[in-house]
Amino acid sequence: MTTKTGFVGTTGTVAIVNGTDLHVAYVGDSPAYLYHTNGEFDPLIIPHNPMNPVEKARVKEVGGSIVT
């Protein structure tokens, strides 16, 4: 999809806590982090964007193209 300002996309992150279980779903490059009581953070997702070499290779492997 293109607009007057360029290409657009969608991102989203959802987290559900059920007791001691954490379920995270995401699309795009919206971040999600796990916060520890010692003040440290751990990333929970791998961004779906062309800056990620694994994602870039996956897109090309299935015949897609990346426009930057």
UniProtKB/TrEMBL annotation:
Record-annotated PPM-type phosphatase domain positions: 1-68
Protein name: PPM-type phosphatase domain-containing protein
The species this protein was found in: Sphaeroforma arctica JP610
